[in-house]
Structure formats: structure tokens, C-alpha cells
Amino acid sequence: MTKKSKLIALWRRIWHRHSKPFFIVAGSGFLIVAGYVLIPWLYQPYIRVSGNIVTLSLHCVPQSLQLESLTEHSVVKGADIVVKDLEDGRGVSIAALLAPPTRGDSKTTSGLMLRPEDILKAETFALEHGTRSRIHARIEYFPTPYIDLSSAVITAANTGRSDCKDQELRADALLSDLNRAPARLMRYSLLQDKLSDLLLSVNESAGNIVLACMMTWSLLLVAELSSGLWRSRFADDETIKSIYSNYASRAPRELKVEGPETLVNAIYLQVLRRLSFARVIGPALGFMLTVSSLVAGLHPSMHSTHDTFYFISSLQIALVATFMGLAMRVLAEFSIRAHRSSADRMIELIVRND
């Protein structure tokens, strides 16, 4: 027994004895690392507001207001600060100035501010009407199914009032100040939103790469089909015998001993394995690419920006992928039948010859 064999035998004994604890420790470590990465990624308390209008109650006239959303497609279209008397219904509405949105880490921060003269006008109206007045900010986003708000930072105007302070609202505090809009508190990010964002970012480039592979594969299947049809229908007997002789010269010895029928069937099985895989993987890739393209095309950001071109492009990828998957299935099916006929013809010629 050589030194190498002894080491291999020792390793096998150690492995059989300690493999179970190893897998337990490795699995536990993987779960800890996965939890350490996924929990902060998914646990992000935020408010999901249905529709594209957010109405936020304010205690004082603000100088500026910053809203942070967890989606990059949430872009503010316009905003107003409204001071209203609850008894007689009168009020003033002041259009706020919008700051360019900033994006980063899958978040969008939108800011708005008031001019000094507008702050004075709103504050004067609020003081005249006293406790009957209510102040709120009405923020309108570009059309979107929902808005995910993570925080609101309110900078109070410097009017000399002691009860007006800067505020940062999150979670329950933010939800309590939202009104006139269906909203709910979300304790964690939905995995469907994360996967949808991922598909949106990679669908177009990855989809075209997959389509190129499917196109190349389809051309190879056309070649397989042509080869099978030629051998089963058009090649003469001498050519078929020559092809068999070529196979037999390269075949393993045990196949030669078992006879020509076994040898031809073994060759056919190799082709069948390859074509059967193409017959299954073609429709599977087509369907997967179809679904991913529809997910990307129906992403909320496409709705908010009215990106008709991207939607049509995603729909085009989906339809082309379906077509290519079906084409691969049909080509693979006919290729299998053609090669089966070719194998039967070769067996008949060789056995009859013998």
C-alpha cells in the first residue's frame, strides 16, 4: 500500500466519521451569514401610500421639507403648502419650490422649500385664524401605483414661535401625520419588490444574451435535423455503410463485441440525450424570459415615467423568447424522429448485409 493510498484511506475514515458535524457547522455558519446580510436588507420600516398624492399634516409653517422614498421611480411633480380655516373653509395655498431629486442606494430624496414672503403670508393667515387653522403639505408625485416613504424631515420656519421645532418623522410617527390617503406601515421590504427591481435592471441585456444563445442553439438543431433527414431519406446505402464503419472504428471494444445493433443504438442514445435536453431547455428558457420581461415591463417605474418604449421593448423580448422556445422544441422533436429513422435504416442495412 503506497503512501498516497494510505493518505486517501485516512481521509475517507475522517470524512465518514466527522462529515455530519462538519455539515452542521457549515450550515449554521451559512445561515448566520445569510441572516446578517438579508435582515438589514429586508428590515426597513416604511409607509406604503396608495396612489400618487401624499398629504402630510404639519404643526407649523415649514421652511423646507424632505421626503425620502425607497423607490427610485418616486419623483415629485408638484407640491403645495395649504393653510385652511376649518370653520369657514377659507385658506391659502402656496406652491412650493422643488429641489432636484437625489438618488442613491435604491432611494430617492425629494425636497421642497418656501420663499420668505410665502412663509410670512402663510404664518399671518395661521395667526389670524388661531386654533381653527390647520396646515398641511400636499405633495403630488408622477403617476405611480404606490409610494414607499421611509422618512420626512421638516425644517420649521424661523418665525419666533417656541412651539415650532424641526422634526424627523419615521414609521408610526409618519403614519399618524398622513391623511387623506390609504397608507399602511410596512415593517420589512417585500421580496417581490427587490426581485422586480433586479429583473428591471438586467432584463434587457441578459434577455438579449439568452436570445442570442437560443438562436445559435436553433441553428445547431437545424443542422441536426438536416443531418438526420439526409441519412434517413437521401443518402445511398454505401454512404450509410461508410458512416457505420467510421463509427465502428472509433467505438469501444465492448460495443463492437455486442454487435452492430447495440453500437448504432449507443450512438443514437448520445444524440437523443443532447436533443432531449434541447427539447426541454428551449421552452423553459423561453417561458422564463417571457415572465421576466413582463415583470420588467409592468414595473411601477414604467408606469410613473410613461416609458412606452421600454414597455414595448419588454413585450417584444417576451414574444420573441416564446417563439424561440417553441422553435427549439419543434426542431428538437423532429430531429429526434429523423435520427431514429436514420438509426433504424443503418441497423437494417448492416444486419441485412451480415
Describe the structure.
By secondary structure, this protein is an alpha+beta fold. It has two domains: 47-189, Sandwich (Immunoglobulin-like); 192-353, no CATH class. It is built from nine helices and twelve strands. The chain has helices spanning 3-42, 116-129, 171-177, 191-234, 237-250, 253-258, 260-297, 300-305, 308-353; strands at 46-50, 53-58, 62-69, 76-85, 91-95, 97-104, 107-113, 133-141, 146-156, 167-170, 178-179, 183-186. The strands form two sheets. Strands 1, 3, 6, 7, 9, 10 and 12 form a seven-stranded antiparallel beta sheet that branches. Strand 4 and strand 5 (91-95) form a beta hairpin. Helix 4 runs antiparallel to helix 7 (260-297), helix 4 (191-234) packs parallel to helix 9 (308-353) and helix 7 (260-297) runs antiparallel to helix 9. The chain is elongated, with a radius of gyration of 35 Å. The model has no long low-confidence stretch (mean pLDDT 82).
Summary tags:
354 residues, alpha+beta, Immunoglobulin-like, 2 domains, 7-stranded antiparallel beta sheet, 9 helices
* Helical residues, percent: 55-70%
The tally of helices reads 9
**Rg over CA atoms:** 35 Å
Query: What is the average per-residue confidence, as pLDDT, rounded to a whole number?
Result: 82
Low-confidence runs of at least 5 consecutive residues = none
Structural class: alpha+beta
How many strands appear in the DSSP assignment? 12
Q: Give the helices and strands as they follow along the chain.
A: HEEEEEEEHEEEHEEHHHHHH
Proportion of strand residues: 15-25%
Major sheet size, sense and barrel closure: 7 strands, antiparallel
Termini distance?
50 Å
Shape call: elongated
The total domain count is 2
